[in-house]
Design a protein that fits this description.
single chain, two-stranded antiparallel ribbon
Length: about 140
């Protein structure tokens, strides 16, 4: 699917089909997939910049933490990925059946996840302001 060494490392993860299936389900429900895909997460911490007027914005370096994931996904061969998905579909459906409400198909969950991702606004221009909420930012 890709010659990227990082993808080869990811493919060695235990219970990968279950984890990816759970991640799709999380995204479809509006939740972060980070808990199940932690091995793909950035090593660097999320950083913010505090402005003079007490505004808090995302440090541009925080966005760069995901460059590796974007680069690897950007190298996927679509035909190979489609073939792999087709081959793994029975396992994906089985894993999905373990976590989904009765009667819900993985295809419908995947569709909802894609729609959820497409609905995320893309910030344009300047810095993106965030508000501290406990140990996190919103």
């Amino acid at each position: 699917m890709s010659e990227e060494a990082e993808l080869q490392r990811w493919l060695q993860e235990k219970d990968l089909v279950r984890r990816v299936t759970a991640a799709v389900n999380n995204i479809a429900e509006g939740a972060s997939p980070r808990m199940v895909l932690g091995f793909m997460g950035p090593a660097d911490k999320f950083q913010v910049v505090e402005g003079k007027n007490k505004s808090v914005t995302i440090d541009p370096r925080s966005h760069a933490r995901y460059d590796l994931v974007a680069r690897v996904v950007g190298t996927f061969d679509a035909q190979v990925a489609r073939s792999m998905y087709r081959d793994l579909k029975p396992l994906i459906d089985q894993a999905h059946g373990e976590i989904a409400p009765p009667g819900q198909t993985f295809d419908s969950t995947l569709s909802r996840a894609i729609q959820h991702l497409l609905a995320v606004p893309v910030p344009e221009g300047g810095a993106l302001e965030v508000q501290p909420q406990g140990a996190l930012y919103v």
